[in-house]
Each structure stands twice: as C-alpha cells, then as structure tokens.
Amino acid sequence: MLEVTNVDLHYGAAIALRNVSITAVPGAVTCLLGRNGVGKTSLLRAIVGAHPISAGSIRWEGHDITRLPIYERARRGIAWVPQGRDIFPLLTVRENLETGFAVLPRAERRVPDEIFDLFPVLKTMLRRRGGDLSGGQQQQLAIARALVMHPRLLVLDEPTEGIQPSIIKDIGRVISLLRDRGDIAILLVEQYYDFARELAQTIVVMDRGDIVLSGNREALDEADVRRRLSV
Q: Model confidence over 153-163: pLDDT tens digits?
C-alpha cells in the first residue's frame, strides 16, 4: 500500500503541494484528476523520489521512503512512466526495454513474454529505433519498459496525452488487465474524466496544490467533478 500523508512540496519559494494525502492499493486504480498546473505531476515526482518534499511522509509497503533516492524507490518496486514518455530515441525498442533491467537482480534480467502479449506491436519493432515510433507506440514502449521492472506500484502520468483514440483504448485495456491481476497498485494522472471513470476505483481531484475532492467513483457527483476539471 502507498500512503502519502500531509505532503508539502516547494519549488524555491513557490509552494506546489499543500497538505496532500493520498493512498493506492494493489488491485485498484487511484486516479488523480485536475486542470493543468494544479500539482498532479509534482505529487508524482514526490512519490517516485524525483523531487524532495518539504513536509509530510511517504510510506510504501509499510516502510517510510520519504528520504529515499529515486533509484532506491525503483528497487522497491515503484515504476514511473513520466509525462512525455522519455524513451531513448536513438536506442532500439529492445534496448529501451532492457534499460528496465537496471533495478533487477542479474538472474531476472529478461523481457517477460507478457510484455508482448500486452503490446504485440512492440514484438514486430524490436530492432526499430525508439525515435522512429509514433507517439502512441512510444507510449506503449514507455509503459512496457516500466513493466519490465516487475513493479508493485505503477505510476502513470497522463498516458493518453497526444495519443490517437485506437491506442488510448489499447492502453486502457492494459491498465484494466494489470489492475485485475491484483498484485499491482496503479496511480494514474489524467485530465479526461471518462477515461478515468472507466478504470479507477478511487478518484482524487486537485486544484492549486490541494485535494478538493476524493472518494469512490460511484460516490462522487459527476457534475461536480466535471465542473472542477473545466477551464
């Protein structure tokens, strides 16, 4: 279980998060919604260790990881798919996948067959450079690279951004399959309520660094959520 408790985060004198608390559990999707610039990505960066927090705590599987560096959190099963994908454009698809080996014991350094069951298009492109893939294919590669790490917490930052509808459906299907396996906690940042509602058990809405709504998707008022997401 991921437990983020009363977290503040600053960039210099500017505060990005105020007293933020959130949880994520295996076998479920927690979706973080909000307009641009409200602190969603800052919260993910705090969770994965990419930016230090100013106050509060972060616990994962019962251990305090608040001060652990990003690579130690990765070794503990936390995988991050950042906004913009961040694949290596000059490496092949296979080489991009193999970068996920860094946190694994040597005996486990292989690309699981499941990766190609989830993303069959990647199997046909193993020798193609990452930069030659379409945006949707790069997004699939970024998620696949994270799954190579055998994560127990998968953190996804706007995986549908700039992606064609057919691949959005494929990504939604993969997230559903991973959720239903029951052994991965998934924290998903999205702007599109319909995509989030289809997948998430818990929905959290942020505004200006604060959590303004949180609860089971069935319990939240849809009109209220949509109003807070509108520009």
A: 999 999 998 88
Domain boundaries, the chain: 2-229
State the alpha helices, DSSP H only, in 14-164. 40-48, 70-75, 93-98, 113-118, 120-123, 135-148
DSSP 133-201: S-HHHHHHHHHHHHHHT--SEEEEE-TTTT--HHHHHHHHHHHHHHHHHSS-EEEEEES-HHHHHHH-S
Structure tokens at 74: 């990765």
Q: Which CATH number fits domain 2-229: 3.20.20.140, 3.40.50.300, 3.40.50.1000, 3.30.710.10?
A: 3.40.50.300
Q: Model-level pTM?
A: 0.93
Could you tell me the sign of the dihedral formed by the alpha carbons of 146, 194, 30, 42, in that order? Answer: positive
3 state DSSP class of 104: coil
- Angle, helix 135-148 to helix 165-181, in steps of 10 degrees: 10
